[in-house]
UniProtKB/TrEMBL annotation:
Stretch forming the signal peptide: 1-26
Record protein name field: Non-specific lipid-transfer protein
Swiss-Prot/TrEMBL GO biological process terms: lipid transport
Record keywords: Disulfide bond, Lipid-binding, Signal, Transport
PROSITE patterns: PLANT_LTP (PS00597)
Superkingdom assignment: Eukaryota
Coiled-coil residues: none
Native organism: Medicago truncatula (Barrel medic)
Length: 119
């Protein structure tokens, strides 16, 4: 009887793991993108000399590691759009942020970026 219950619990746990795999590999949500890049906001509103602070660059690197497909790139671009339209951000620092962190997002981050064309 106990063996049967253990088997059922094990099967349920395996099912949860298998069903969770696609969720774990999906693009980050907009709130996750915003939270990941939040350490960049002070630098982008009052930039100093490059490179940006480590927490900012680490956020970009984390985000880059979560992007797997062209659709993910577009999704993240759409998430960035409201952030980069903030008039308090330094546009020049914003555009150079990925490069200054040693990365290439595949597109220039700016208020006028066309997310439908990035991939």
């Amino acid at each position: 009887m106990a063996s049967s219950m253990l088997t059922k619990v094990t099967c349920l746990a395996m099912l949860c793991l298998v069903l969770g795999i696609p969720i774990a590999n999906s693009a980050p949500s907009c709130p996750q993108v915003q939270q990941t890049l939040a350490p960049c906001i002070p630098y982008l509103t009052n930039p100093g000399p490059p490179p940006p602070p480590d927490p900012c660059c680490n956020g970009y690197k984390t985000l880059d590691g979560q992007i797997k497909t062209p659709e993910d790139i577009q999704d993240v671009c759409y998430c960035l759009k409201p952030i980069v339209e903030n008039p308090k951000l330094n546009i020049s620092a914003l555009a150079s942020l990925p490069k200054d962190c040693g990365m290439d997002m595949g597109y220039v981050i700016s208020p006028d970026m066309d997310c439908s064309k990035v991939n």
